[in-house]
Amino acid sequence: MSLLRCEGVTKYFGGLRALDGVDLVVDPGEIVGLVGPNGSGKTTLMNAISGTFGINAGRVEFDGTDVTGMRPHQRAHLGIARTFQIPKPLPSLSVIDNVALAYTFGRDQVPMGRARQLAGDLLAELELAGKALAPVAHLNLHERKLLGIARALGLEPRLLLLDEVLAGLNPTEVDLGLAMITAVRDRGVAVIYIEHNVKAVTSISDRLYVLNRGTNLVDGNPRDVVADERVVAAYLGDAHADPA
Ligand SMILES: Nc1ncnc2c1ncn2[C@@H]1O[C@H](COP(=O)(O)OP(=O)(O)O)[C@@H](O)[C@H]1O
Ligand SMILES: [Mg+2]
Q1: Which of 27-36, 57-66, 232-241 has the lowest mean pLDDT?
Q2: CA geometry: angle 233, 169, 202, nearest 5 deg
Q3: Atom of ligand 1 nearest to the CA of 47
Q4: What pTM was estimated for this model as a whole?
């Protein structure tokens, strides 16, 4: 059975159709890349999946449960976690406490003492242990992004939603980030990964979906998808991206 099934997801902002009947399926433990020109509806679809706002039509099903009407915290409790394009840790807390907090809110709602232990283990795995006690303000951009992923993983998700988490990183950091996302998948967590850098997302995705103007354009094997002439044509109008 699929882990996530979006059917006919439709979202209006006033008169603008940001999503118009989008379908998307994610199986357990796979990385699904989500790409498309600027404004094609990628972030809106992620919001529809995490429950940031309600949708106007369609259905979102997670692990066999209709979650369409559920609040974000209810969905998080079922195992849907997301990071935001701009990481928003609590600046007054240390790195480890920010991650521990996620564990206390997560699927198992573990008590704070145990949450700090789990957070310490996770930070070690992400090679952030050296910064565990540091205030969040002392982290560089790369470390902040890792912290964002750590906080999402602290929720012990079955599906992790990543929205352009590698934007602004240098090539070495991008490679580290891609390896980390693959490691997350190898823990059995399914990932939906929105990425402007099509080459990067193609390199780690099991399947790729392309949105265009709020609708499904093409999906399938990443190599086939990026070579599809409809995808190439859609990107020609987007000066910021290059599918090849
Ligand atoms: N909260 C919002 N209010 C009004 N319009 C929005 C809102 N969020 C997104 N949009 C619009 O919906 C469309 C899709 O946006 P978005 O999902 O952010 O695209 P992408 O992430 O693919 O760049 C864009 O035209 C955008 O301006
Ligand atoms: Mg976006």
Answers
A1: 232-241
A2: 40
A3: 17
A4: 0.87
